[in-house]
């Protein structure tokens, strides 16, 4: 299960692992000139009714720098770019968390915007080196491009992490994409 500021995009309950100021940054170049970037900051913010409170803010951006534009007659009409980005403000108390997200998408200068919420919970089993987690992502209204409205990709997730050795874990996850009516299974390692 993801812990620290990186959890803001997956399960905000993971923010509860933050004990002091924490900063994260990542940049990945993908195929076809796409890039994925994340920057986040989190910190412990005192307590709420005797339980530790953690806060985080993060920004994630997926961008494509250039596409060839074509007119209806297939003649080149210049280029355009596209991006999707989200700014999240999250919190965690004990092993529960939430995040408010501002989502923006742009294709050829036409922008769409929406707000959404993520909710999550996690629990470490007392006698086993296992952490289980549950989350709901993208609870919110539709996003609208010009006159077309589309659902945000609402998903319900559950998973667990098994610590095999100190610093090495196996992770398993199941995600239900509600509107797409698909279930995705994932497995991986953390080290």
| Distance between the amino and carboxyl termini | 12 Å
Give the percentage of residues in beta strands: over 45%
Percentage of helical residues?
under 10%
Mean pLDDT reading: 90
Shape: elongated
The number of strands is 12
Q: Structural class, judged by helices and strands?
A: mainly beta
Taken in chain order, the helices and strands follow as: EEEEEEEEEEEE
Question: Which value, in Å, is the CA radius of gyration?
Answer: 19 Å
Tell me about the largest β-sheet. Answer: 10 strands, antiparallel
User: Count of DSSP helices?
Assistant: 0
Strand order of the largest sheet: 1-2-3-4-5-6-7-10-11-12
Low-pLDDT runs:
none
Structural features, described:
By secondary structure, the chain is mostly beta strands. It is 0% helix and 71% strand. The protein contains no helices and 12 strands. It has strands at residues 22-29, 34-48, 51-70, 76-93, 96-107, 110-124, 130-140, 143-145, 148-150, 155-165, 168-177, 182-190. It has a 10-stranded antiparallel beta sheet with strand order 1-2-3-4-5-6-7-10-11-12, with no helix packed on it. The chain has a two-stranded antiparallel sheet with strand order 8-9. Strand 2 (34-48) and strand 3 form a beta hairpin. The protein is elongated. The termini are close together. The model has no long low-confidence stretch (mean pLDDT 90).
């Amino acid at each position: 299960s993801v812990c620290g500021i990186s959890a803001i995009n997956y399960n905000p309950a993971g923010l509860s692992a933050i004990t002091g100021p924490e900063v994260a940054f990542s940049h990945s170049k993908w195929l076809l000139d796409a890039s994925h970037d994340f920057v986040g900051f989190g910190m412990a913010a005192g307590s709420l009714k005797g339980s530790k409170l953690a806060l985080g803010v993060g920004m994630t951006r997926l961008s494509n720098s250039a596409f060839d534009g074509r007119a209806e007659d297939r003649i080149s009409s210049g280029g355009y770019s596209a991006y999707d980005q989200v700014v999240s403000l999250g919190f965690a108390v004990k092993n529960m968390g939430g995040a408010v997200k501002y989502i923006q998408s742009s294709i050829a200068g036409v922008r769409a915007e929406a707000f959404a919420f993520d909710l999550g919970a996690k629990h470490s089993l007392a006698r086993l080196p296992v952490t289980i987690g549950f989350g709901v992502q993208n609870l919110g209204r539709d996003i609208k491009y010009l006159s077309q409205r589309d659902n945000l990709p609402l998903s319900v997730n559950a998973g667990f992490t098994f610590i095999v050795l100190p610093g090495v874990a196996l992770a398993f996850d199941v995600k239900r994409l509600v509107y797409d009516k698909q279930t995705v299974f994932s497995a991986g390692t953390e080290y």
